[in-house]
Amino acid sequence: MKKINLIIFSLLFCSVINAATLIEAIGDKNTQFEGGDADVFEESKSQVHLYNLNGPDEINKLLGDKLPPNKEQAMAIVKSRIAVLGPSLEVKTKTAYLGITAAIRYRLTEYPAIVFNQKYVIYGETDIEAAYNQYQAWLDKHE
Fold first, then answer.
1. Is 21 helix (H, G, I), strand (E, B) or coil?
2. pTM of the model
């Protein structure tokens, strides 16, 4: 019985220690995040997601750029663009709104913001590795 409890404890303890970190970096088209491909994220199996708050604007520009003033002609051009883009438009549209959705979900008050494990936020930092180090240092002190 002691051996089974020890194995269960070891499995639980190791899974907590080796848990991957979910990192979501949220900014606009002018935000240049760096350090998201650092070796530390690969080794820890952490996931890094970059979100652009201007995604919806880019979809609007893709479909509505340089349209003529005539409504019927404009509609025909937009329909043609949608047909050419096909299924990729759906993927682009879903991706475009991920940043806005994340900003609302986390109730972000400014950006750039880097969110860790859907719980902790660091504002104003664009170096993901530096933010990760700040996050880890904070965890070491508080948990």
1. coil
2. 0.73
Q: What span, in angstroms and rounded, lies between the C-alpha atoms of 135 and 87? A: 38
Average pLDDT, the chain: 83
Q: Looking at this protein, which amino acid is placed at residue 37?
A: D
Q: Vertex 118, ends 116 and 121: CA angle to 5°?
A: 50
How much is the average pLDDT of 73-87? 93
127-132 LR contacts (CB < 8 Å, sep 24+): 127/33, 127/34, 127/35, 128/23, 128/25, 128/33, 128/34, 128/35, 128/36, 128/38, 128/48, 129/34, 129/35, 129/36, 129/38, 129/40, 130/35, 132/21, 132/23, 132/35, 132/38, 132/40, 132/41, 132/46
In the block, residue with structure tokens 């990729």: 88
Q: Is 134 exposed, middle or buried (0-12, 13-18, 19+ CB in 10 A)?
A: middle
Q: Are 26 and 18 in contact (CB under 8 A)?
A: no
